Amino acid sequence: MADEITTTPPAPPEAAAERKPAAPKVKTRKPKQRACDERDPKGKLCAGHLKRWYDYPREIEQLVGKGAEIYRCEFCKVLYRPDPKQQPNSYTIRY
Ligand SMILES: [Zn+2]
Questions:
Q1: Domain boundaries, the chain
Q2: What string of DSSP letters covers 22-42?
Q3: H helix count then E strand count, the chain
Q4: Integer Cα distance of 10 and 73 in angstroms
Q5: What is the pLDDT of residues 20-61, one digit of tens each?
Q6: H helix intervals, the chain
Q7: Ligand 1 center to residue 67 CA distance, Å?
Q8: Is the pTM above the cut of 0.70?
Q9: Please, which residues have CB less than 5 A from ligand 1, an ion?
């Protein structure tokens, strides 16, 4: 991962003080995707690690289905459904 030369200093993390129960963003993983491809308002790639999320709360369960395979970005918390074309029998990373 090459660091890009940038002239803008790193901005402090914005306080995510959202209290309204907005539905979380759910994306679908691209084949072999392991890092978040969300971009912040400044266009910076999130690149957070997508981790399998097992004990999600009820509102997430209603969103993705009970017992669904779901991943979550460690940084921006965007949810990812597994790639529908990728068989879930070959992953070796377990937490
Ligand atoms: Zn992310």
A1: 23-86
A2: PPPPEEEPPTT--B---B-TT
A3: 1, 4
A4: 20
A5: 667 789 999 999 999 999 998 999 999 999 999 999 999 999
A6: 58-64
A7: 22
A8: no
A9: 36, 38, 46, 48, 73, 75-76
